[in-house]
Structures are given as C-alpha cells and as structure tokens.
Amino acid sequence: MKIDHVIVVTPDLDNTVARYRQELGFETVAGGSHESVGTANSIIPFGPLYPQYLELLTATDPSLLFGEVVHKSSTAGETPFGWAVSVDNLKSTASRLNLEPITISREMPDSTVLSWQLVGLVEAVTSNGFLPFFISPQHDPLHARNSGGVTVQHRVEPFSIASINVSGSQQELNHWLGDAKLPVKVTPGEPHIVSFTINSSAGDIIISSTP
Q1: Contact indicator for 177, 85 with CB cutoff of 8 Å
Q2: Contact, 197 vs 54, CB < 8 A?
Q3: CA atoms lying within 13 Å on the CB side of residue 24
Q4: Which of 66, 67, 76, 135 is least surrounded, with the fewest CB atoms within 10 Å of its CB?
Q5: Distance between CA 132 and CA 130 in Å, rounded?
Q6: Count of CB atoms within 10 A of residue 128's CB?
Q7: What CATH topology corresponds to 2-155?
Q8: What are the domain boundaries of the chain?
Q9: What's the pLDDT tens digit per position in 109-168?
C-alpha cells in the first residue's frame, strides 16, 4: 500500500493550471471529463511513468452528486480535497472493509474512454478527505504507461508526495488503512484533509487551502 495521488479542487481549472505553471513550475496534462459524476481534471505527473501524481479537479455539472460536492468544496478557492492509496488487491481491501468496488470512467481529450475501480470513495468524500479511497496500482490515468510514459517538461520537477496532514481520529485512520504505515500526520479534530507536501527539485512545497 502506498500513496497514489492527491487531489486539489478548484472553481476554475484553467486558472489553477496556469498558476501551478507560473508559481510552482509544474506542468499539467489534460485528463478529461468524468461525465457520469460531473467533474473534469488535469494531472501533474511525477516522472514519465508517474508512480504518483497530483490531480486538479473541477465541477462541470453541479446537478450531479459528486459534481455538487466538488463545486461546494471549491467555492472559496483551491483547496486540498482528498487522497488515494493504491493496494495490490482491491477486492481484498473491499472485503476487509465490507464495501463494494465502484467503477469510474473518464473520457480523455482524444475521446479515449478509461475506466477503473475504486473502493471507499463515498466514505472518503463524506470524511472531507480525512480518509483516503483505494485504487488499483494498475490504473493509468493518462493512458500512457503502456506506451513508455508521458513526456512533461516541468520547470520544477515533482518527485514524490512526502507527507499528508489530516485532522481526525488516528484510531479510525489506522483501522481504515489496515494499520499500514504511511507518511500521514493526524491531528485530533473535525475530520478533513489539511495539507500535503510535495518533495521537488526546488525543495518541499506545501499545498494547503487558499488563504
């Protein structure tokens, strides 16, 4: 089990993409639209095979449940929204937590449709990002790994998700993760994701809510 990616929601995806390029030195790749849930994204891959990545997410249809949640979460501006961990056996994780996997699909800019399974997405969203959702390590959000990877010229190279800060119950998180050890700091309080740190060629970069 490892941290797979982190999510930032934004009310204006184009402006956020431009800001991350200008202020942080990160380039993005257009991900596409999740028509069934009312969102769209861009992805900041960490390396050509992106073993980890940052997802910038916006609402495209607030009339749909997930689109509404993303819209409400981003009303005040860019903010950390959630995180995902990859597990070798998604079915085993679903069984351990007594949950059913759900299938998500996304249409890419070239009209390719990608689909993959998740476990615990509803629980992650309703915990305000305190809990992660689970995903298979075989998912390929840019459909590029089988063709040798994606080429992105970052001005500042993102290396890894160094740590995540959340507020909530340490015992609840331990149970959710099956006591796996991940670089997550828990502060007691109302459940939510507080911030995360990306290790980069310019040093550690902390992403938190827009002041």
Answers
A1: yes
A2: no
A3: 20
A4: 76
A5: 7
A6: 19
A7: 2,3-Dihydroxybiphenyl 1,2-Dioxygenase; domain 1 (3.10.180)
A8: 2-155
A9: 888 888 899 999 999 999 999 999 999 988 899 988 888 899 999 999 999 999 999 999
